[in-house]
Amino acid sequence: MAQHGRSGFSLFVGNLPYHTTADELGHFFSQAGPVVNIRLVSDRETGRPKGFGFCEFESEQAAQKAISTLDGAEFNGRSIRVNWANK
Question: Is residue 55 part of a domain?
Answer without folding.
Answer: yes
